[in-house]
Each structure stands twice: as C-alpha cells, then as structure tokens.
Specification:
The complex is a heterodimer of chains A (382) and B (193). Chain A is of the alpha/beta class and 382 residues long. In chain A, strands 3-2-1-6-8-9-10 form a 7-stranded parallel β-sheet, sandwiched between helices. Chain A has a 6-stranded parallel β-sheet with strand order 13-12-11-14-15-16, sandwiched between helices. Chain A has a two-stranded antiparallel sheet with strand order 4-5. The longest helix of chain A has 16 residues. The radius of gyration of chain A is 21 Å and the shape is elongated. Chain A starts with a strand and ends in an 8-residue tail after the last strand. By secondary structure, chain B is mostly helical. In chain B, helix 2 packs antiparallel against helix 3. Classes of the chains: A alpha/beta (382), B mainly alpha (193). At the A-B interface, strand 4, helix 2, helix 3 and helix 4 of A face helix 2 and helix 3 of B.
Chain lengths: 382, 193
C-alpha cells in the first residue's frame, strides 16, 4: 500500500509526535509498504529517504507555548505537490487540529484520510472556539485514531465524533541495552529526568522540590537531567546552593545518549503535571527496565497498569514524590520487581504491534474508495 | 509678637496650600492613568477583533487562520498581568497573551510574498491595512499609558508625597510591557527564542 503521512512539527526538533511518525513509518516500511512523510524541516537538515521537507518551520506561540509550525500559502502549495506526485492509497495526518501541515493536507486532499490525535487538553476551550475554522478539513477525515483514552476524551468533548484508541508504540529493542554514562549511577544512587526543562507541564519543578527534601537526607544521591531549556542556568539556580553540584544537566541529548541516560539511573522520574496523553518517555524508560516513579495523571496510570509497573505519586506533590522515590531507592527487591513488571507491560506497546493495528484502520478506510487526490476547491494559491 | 504669629499662620497656610496642590496633582495623575488604561484596553480589543476578522475571512489558509484565531482566543481569556483586570484571572497573563497575538500576526505577515498572494482578493487590502492600523494604535496607546505611569510613579515617590502619604490608598499603577511590533526584525531573536 502507498501511504502518505503528514507531520505537523519540525522534523529537526525532537518531540513525541515526530518520533511516533518516524517509528510508525519505519515499522510500516519493514512490513513492505511504501511510505512517504512530509514534514517541516530546515533546508540543511539531513532527512531519512522517506521524508520530504516542506521548508523551514516558523516558531509561533500557540495554545500557551511556542511551537515550530508550517503554515501559509507556500506550505499549501508544497503539500499539494506532494499529494499530487505521491499517488497515495491513504493519507495519514497527525494532529490536524494544530495549525500546520496536517490541517493543510486535510484541506487540499480528497480520498481516504486517517487522522491521529495525540494531545489531551483538559478544560481548554481553544479547540472548541477555533473548530469552525478547521471544520471543513476535519470533516473529510474517514478514520480517527487517538493515542490514549485521554486524547480520545479531548477529541470527543471538543470536536465530537469518536476515535479508536491505538496507543503509541515503543521501539523496545532500541532501549533494552546500553552502557551507563561514566560514573553513573554512583554509590549514593541517582534519579533521572528526561524532557523539556522549561515546559511547566513536564513537571521538573516538582522533581527539584522533591530533591530539596531528599538531597539533605541522602548525601550521595544525584539527579541526572536531560532535556532542552532556553536558560539552563536559571534551572540550576532554583536548586539550593548546597545541592547544586549534585544536579547534573546534560542539555539536549542524542537518541543513543538518551538510552544511556535511562541506564544510568536507579530510579526514573516522570513528574508531569498534565497535558501528557501517553508519556512516550515513560514507556521508553519501561523498555530500558528502569524502575519508575510517575505522577498519577491518567496517561501514566494507564501505561503503568495502575501502579503495577511503576510507583505512582500525587501529581504536583513534591513531598509525596520524595516519599515514593526514597522508598524505591531503599528497596532493591522492589526495584527489581518493578523493572521486570515494566518490561513485561511495555511489550504490548512495541511498534510492530502498533503498526499492524494502524494498518487495519487503513484497510478499513480504503474499502471502496479511490486514491488520494488534490481537490479543486482547496487551497487555490498560485 | 503679633507679626510672628501672622508669619507662622501664613507659612502654615502656604504649606497647606502647597501640600494639597501636590496631593491634587497626584490624584489627577492617577485619573489620567485610568483614562490611558481604558484607551489601551480599547486598542487591544480592537486589534483582537480585527485579527479575528482576518482569521475568519477565508482569505488565509486554514493553518494561518487557526493560528490567529487561537491567539485571539488567548487574549480574550487572559488574566490581569500588568494592567488591571479587564478579563477574568484565568489563563495566560494578559501581557503574555497579547504578545502572543503580536507574534502570531507577525508570523503571518512576514511570510515571503504574503501580500502579493492576497492582493486582488475581495477586501484583502483593506483588511490588512486595518490590522496594521490597529496594531499601530496599540503601540501608541501603550506608549502613552506607560509615559503616564512613569510620571505618576515618579510623583508618588517624591519624599514629601511618601512622608505625607499623598497618594492615599490608590495603588501604584503598573507598566504594561508587551511585544507590539508587527515588523519582523530578526525572526528568532525578536521572538525571544
């Protein structure tokens, strides 16, 4: 089958949606399908052979944070050309509610379209209010996939209609084995964090507060933090001076180093306070077999099987996190138990399983339908 | 003896007149800050509504439309944040939300060939001109408001005004800082990224 996939976010910026698309495309290619992805990307970024660049993405504020997106009439004409030349049997758009390529693809295309919704937004009215703007495009979607129950609920509440839930996949074998970074985890133990440092919903602030409690009690304990931040100095200054040398900031790390980071800590922490629909990073930590302590938001509760495959603490509660992490650090057998449970639980999320589930959605929407084409009405900018 | 009393009384009177004049001036400044604030509020609202009109005009591609509509929605939800409470205190502070709208407008307007792609379409030139005019008015109104705030704060902070609490219970007015330039200087840097 010829499959066209659109990515709304810049390919050169690491992110959950981009990684989802990459892993899905590669799993589908492994199964023998022909896949083409269109994504915003800087012109000099090396792209895998199956990715078409749609030009440089522009950083714009959207929904309270800054995203790098592609919009405007130039992007429209690039998407049209990609669809026209692709001759796809099915078009798979990701996050069509975001003002970027996927929305544009819905606008200009006709034929079988599948959409995947990644985001869970509690109580946000922005989707509700802006929906009239995107309705025409959204109504062309034949099959909808949500990556989690939370994302599905957002879709049902804000847009209406329903979706099948197909959780994110994890390329589990990529995470299974890696050498720890030199000197880690160290005799005093180590807690790990991965994610944007300056994105409040990722919850680093909660972890730093918990470290203020744990640090003085455990003189050898260290914190290993990997992720992008606009101002890393500022992050470090939030830690009391006496503990600062025990918080190690790695900045943004490569995919390989990310796996090594996961193997460098005794406990991995996912302190997110919300906005997470699945928690890909948490699932990757599970695939690495690290014992996990995570906030009890819906997405984590589900992936960690209600606490069987990882310790849960009250979201946003630093004292509770300190308690839970402290208990885990002290209990070797509990850590081994959680590690084994996490490895078992994460097998359900392997990409090979997920790609087959996604493919059966493609098969359903192409039944009795023609190829994907460019509509005459949409996007006449030339 | 009597002349001494006359001099003391006259001096006290003069001092009283002077102090009350100073108090009256501070009071007038506060009133003018309020007027400038109302004017700024109006220009911000006008800019939001013109931006929304552009977003829903059908002239733009849906992604740009959605970007603008989302940013407008953010300004309507914005809490106080520097300028007192026109909206509820939910969502993003108003100064940040309004800056977000500026950046969304700037991102739309700074696409290469943006104007030429729209020119010739019904009502496009007028609408773009209206957006620019509304944005310029925000720039002016904010400048005037901040000037007035600076003058008021200066008057409040003079030693005599502080000693005698001439500003009474009125709170010191706050500056309203935001990104209000529609002209893209140097994309990344001007967005603070």
């Amino acid at each position: 089958m010829k499959i066209g996939i659109t990515c709304p976010y810049s390919w050169d910026v690491p992110g959950g949606v981009q990684q989802h698309i990459r892993d899905l495309a590669e799993a589908l290619i492994d199964e023998g399908h022909e896949v083409s992805v269109i994504s915003p990307a800087d012109d000099d970024t090396p792209l895998p052979p199956y990715v078409t660049g749609a030009g440089r993405a522009v950083p714009v504020p959207y929904n309270g944070s800054v995203a790098r997106l592609s919009f405007g009439f130039l992007s429209v004409s690039r998407v049209r050309r990609w669809i026209r030349e692709g001759g796809f049997d099915v078009l798979h758009v990701h996050e069509p509610e975001i003002p970027s390529l996927s929305l544009l693809a819905c606008w200009v295309a006709s034929g079988p379209i599948v959409a995947t919704f990644h985001t869970a937004i509690p109580r946000s009215r922005v989707l509700l209010v802006t929906y009239p703007v995107v309705r025409t495009g959204m109504e062309k979607i034949n099959g909808r996939i949500a990556v989690s129950e939370a994302a599905r609920t957002t879709l049902v509440e804000h847009i209406g209609g329903d979706a099948v839930v197909i959780p994110n996949g994890v390329a589990t074998r990529r995470y299974r084995k890696a050498d720890p970074l030199p000197g880690w985890p160290g005799p005093g133990g180590a807690i790990g964090f991965l994610g944007r440092l300056d994105e409040p919903r990722k919850g680093l602030a909660v972890l730093l507060k918990a470290f203020e409690i744990l640090g003085p009690q455990r003189p050898g304990l260290r914190l290993l933090v990997a992720g992008r931040a606009a101002d890393a100095e500022e992050v470090l200054h939030r830690v009391p001076a006496g503990l600062r040398d025990r918080v190690v900031l790695l900045g943004q790390v490569s995919e390989e180093d990310k796996v090594r980071v996961l193997h460098s800590v005794d406990v991995f922490c996912s302190p997110n306070t919300g906005g997470e629909s699945f928690g890909i990073v948490t699932a990757e930590a599970m695939a690495a077999g690290v014992p996990i302590v995570a906030s009890d938001i819906e997405a984590f509760r589900q992936v960690l099987r209600g606490g069987e495959a990882g310790e849960l603490f009250a979201a946003g509660d630093a004292a509770d996190l300190a308690r839970a992490a402290g208990r885990l650090l002290d209990d070797d057998s509990r850590r081994a138990e959680l590690s084994a449970a996490a490895l078992a639980a994460v097998a359900d999320y392997d990409w090979s399983v997920v790609a087959r589930a996604v493919f059966s959605v493609y098969e359903t929407v192409v039944l009795g339908s023609t190829q994907v084409a460019v509509t005459a009405a949409g996007g006449e900018f030339s | 003896m009597i002349t001494d009393i006359v001099i003391v009384v006259a001096a006290a009177l003069l001092a009283g007149v002077y102090v009350s004049w100073r108090a009256g001036r501070i009071d007038r400044l506060h009133a003018r800050v309020e007027m400038a604030r109302a004017a700024l509020d109006v220009t911000l609202l006008r800019r939001s509504s013109v931006a929304l009109e552009l977003a829903t005009s059908g002239l733009l591609d849906p992604a740009t439309s959605l970007l603008l509509a989302g940013a407008v929605h953010g300004t309507r939800q914005g809490g106080s944040g520097g300028m007192g409470p026109p909206g509820q205190d939910s969502g993003r502070p108003r100064d940040l939300a309004e800056s977000d709208l500026t950046r969304a407008l700037r991102a739309a307007f700074s696409q290469p060939g943006f104007r030429s792609s729209l020119s010739g379409k019904e009502g496009a030139d007028e609408l773009l001109a209206e957006v620019e005019a509304a944005a310029h008015q925000v720039f002016l109104a904010r400048k005037f408001y901040n000037d007035m705030v600076a003058a008021t704060r200066e008057a409040r902070n003079r030693p005599l005004a502080r000693l005698l609490r001439l500003s009474g219970k009125a709170k010191a007015p706050e500056f309203f800082e935001m990104d209000d330039s529609l002209v893209a200087e140097n994309t990344g840097a001007s967005l603070g990224l």
